[in-house]
Please model this.
Amino acid sequence: MNNEPLIRELYTAVSEGLVRPQHAWTAAVVVVALATGWIVASGMRQRVERHHAAHKDAGNRPSEALRVSLGGLRRLAFPVIVLGVLLAGKVVLHALGVFKSAGDERLLQLAMTLVAAMAAIRLVVYILRGAFRQVPMLANFERGIAFLVWLVVALRLGGALTDVVDWLETTTLQIGKTPVSLWTVLMGLASLGVTVLVALWLGSVIEGRLLKSRLDSNLRVVLARVTRALLLLLAVLIGLSAVGMDLTVLSVFGGALGVGLGFGLQRIASNYVSGFVLLLERSLRLGDMIAVDRYQGVVAEINTRYTVLRALDGTEAILPNEMLVSTPVTNFTYSDRRSRVAIKVSVAYDTDLKKAMALLVEAAAAHPRALKDPAVAAGITGFGADGIDLEVGLWISDPEQGKGNIQTEVSQRILEQFRAADIEIPYPQREIRVTQVNPPPSPGD
Model:
């Protein structure tokens, strides 16, 4: 083949007439290749969907790596199969003598080049997605990135890329008093996208290393988020400076952002600052059992703007970080994860108290969650109108698992042991005494 752009070769081939046998056979091979690739790729897509459905029905959620692998193979199937059929068609047409010169295979060569470019681009994007598995941005814009790259490759192969670039360079936008060409804007966006993508990847790698370290959980979260923010800021500065953009314009944007934060975003900024305060001072940790206002539960997440509190019934409350800084918070596991569970019961006044308290201690100590240190203890809390009030207390090390279930189980065991020992749990009793009965009135009164 000569070195002319493929788009010109396509124009030459079409101008010669598609009624030529070589071009008619080429069109037939291209149609068969596209149909075969579409059918096989559709079959693979259906098999992948059935595979995912089978995993869901079995209660097994497929891993992210498996989904990426199956999805990548499905996307690669179409261009690879089409390219294979085109190569096989080229060999067959040469063997049959349909193609006698390099000029006869212009159309087929153009189709093979474009399909090969599509396969290479999808392969690169598939590899990047596997490497950037923790960056959701790449997954969301994967098809858009692949289309743009394939379009650039197609324009390059077609010889039209130079004309497009010249048009973009001559077309300018007026930004303030400075004219900026469309080519500069596109290059700025491209460099910015690449640097941000690299920053996100580095941030995910550093975050993974930090989460595996032995540092405090709050400190790991702070370092991971500060590192990611700094990397993103550095990526933006590098991406903008790579296309020659004056970074002093950012000072104007920074001043406007500061004014906006000062007037319109006070609460949001306060929540962000409060989030870093919570993470740095370690007053709250992941897994702590806390109560604030009318909310109580386990700290599930501490984000820069809000904290997720998971209650024992499974509900989750999203609390602004400012609320946790400015409102009194009860932390049941701040310095010690051990927590006391108390069960109260009343017995009749004629009960053997030593025996009753021994049974209380025995019933509470038998619970599997009860700690041996501090030991279970029982005592008298008061003398009621109907009986003597007793209380038994046991300590647990996992308050996030709930206290109500322990109280129920220990109370059932206490009731069983009291009934076996003939210890009475008194009912409310009242004595009514009539001190004087007035005689009935006489008939003459």
